[in-house]
Amino acid sequence: MMLLATSSSELGHLPILLILGGALFFGTAGARLFRRIRFPQVLGYIVIGLIVGRMWLGLIDGEMLRNFEPFNAFALGIIGFMIGGELHRDIFKRFGRQLIVIVLAEGLAACIVVGSLIGGVTYLITGDVQLSLVLGLLLGSIGVATAPAATVRVLQESKAKGPLTTTVFAVVALDDALALALFAIASSIAIRILPAAAGAAADGGILVALAHAARDLLGAAVLGTASGLLLNWILRRKRDQERALTYIVGTLTLVIGLGRWLGFDTILAAMALGVVVTNLAPRRAGSAFEIVERFAPPIYVLFFVLVGAHLYFNDMEWWLGVLVGVYIVALAIGKISGSYLGGRWTGAPATVRKYLGLCMLCQAGVAVGLALRAAELFGDQGAGALVGTIVITVITGAIFILELAGPPCVKYAVNKAGEAGLDVTEEDLMASYTVADMVDRSAPTFPQGAPLTMILRTIADTDAMSYPVVDDDKKLVGVITLNDLKQSFSAEGLTAWLVAFDLMKPVPDMVTEQLPLADAVDRMRQQELDCLPVLSEPTDGEEGRFVGLLELRKVTRMLSQEMLRRQQQVDAASF
């Protein structure tokens, strides 16, 4: 690529590779810092871009950003490929018409509301009809996109499960696919409304624009599908992971390159490639997408740093800030109202109708990618440069706010829907408990002098496997197990004289009430113990007193019952 043509080419006074390395390193460090203060990582990348870009240090200027256009196209292709991997046919089989209607309703509502308000406000401020129409089309289509990563991360952290959660997982993937399709149509029309900006000939009207958009969409779909068939054929015959990575990246790069050369929408072509791969060979697709996911993080870091480097707020007009606010409000209105109407038309559960829209407000990668694509399409001269600057500024400013406000909205929605904490494993449940939550405080105990006949009567009335022995001060001195009792029956003639002290064994281990349950279970499994005596917390240097017994089989049974209860709760609210 031009941007890596030589390590000695300089921008200002620094070599380009030094700037690239610094962008990757400090971008990652900035994201880590933002994560520590509970802000989305993407903001850290963008802030570093602001620092090294035109906004502050000027280490990355307009010429270098233009040289990075092939890299941006490649990064966007990876995003499109990963989105396509989420569109498995099982989603459509499982949800069918309901899912499609909801996606179209909330997506088109967002597009219409954002496009209308942005276009109207722009006209009121500038009086420029062409600019208003172009911005309405571009920002309206970009407003359809949802950030899968931020949304899914909150759902996973909340351990959410239920109809709302399931719908969100499906819709965030389809949202981006719809955004790509609408953007391809909108940008094709917008370029012909403002032809001088992109050097396009002002031939034909709206029908010609739609025909061009259809050609771009169909061409991208055919290119991605054909490449997917080829990649699937190759992966079926190649088992080596290193070669698989080369073939996957090579095919993806080929699709992007051909798409750019032929004038097709490259993100859509890459998405079609991902759809074909994930549906033709689900098992091989899993490993293919894992390979790309491991390969992609440095590319994402550099991509978002470059997004920040594009920004320049020093001479920003006041009305651009107004457009950011209008965009955010319009997006919220469109997503929430569209989700409600779509859910109502399809008879979705009340939780989906009420709270789905709140889960659709995050925006990041795809929205930024489409904004950059718009800037690339409209060029860097005259009216086109103005359009590109406005779109990038509005989208990036909105993302700053939506990435902060969006995740709390998702968390609020799943909590109100009653789905938080339902998607748990036994290990998750165990991690939330202490020994005090599971100890059997009614476990029978025997004094040291209890005769064998008394012990046998007690055992006949209980289902415990072990029985603690305590002294007069209720301090634990030993434990009797059923195996110990079996061995005592071989002492003929002595059974009438045996007492608990004769039958007990030293306690192999014991735990306190405040110990995490997971630690206690690990200790039992490592030592192959069926139970552990539980003591109260020591006070004033004195040993804790016996409070009950922790039995492994009872813990397992109680965890299974809680898992079943939560699953029944999910099923009761499901579609």
From TrEMBL:
Keywords: Membrane, Transmembrane, Transmembrane helix. One of its GO terms (biological process) is proton transmembrane transport. It is a multi-pass membrane protein. InterPro entries: Cation/H_exchanger_TM, CBS_dom, CBS_dom_sf, Na+/solute_symporter_sf. The keyword DNA-binding does not apply. The chain crosses the membrane at residues 12-30, 42-59, 71-87, 99-125, 131-155, 167-191, 217-235, 295-313, 319-343, 355-375, 381-402. Gene3D superfamilies: 1.20.1530.20, CBS-domain. One of its GO terms (molecular function) is antiporter activity. Signal peptide: none annotated. SUPFAM superfamilies: CBS-domain pair (SSF54631). One of its GO terms (cellular component) is membrane. It holds the Pfam family CBS. It is found in: Membrane. Residues 438-496, 504-566 form the CBS domain. PANTHER family: CATION_H+ EXCHANGER DOMAIN-CONTAINING PROTEIN (PTHR43021:SF2), NA(+)/H(+) ANTIPORTER-RELATED (PTHR43021). This is CBS domain-containing protein. It comes from marine sediment metagenome.
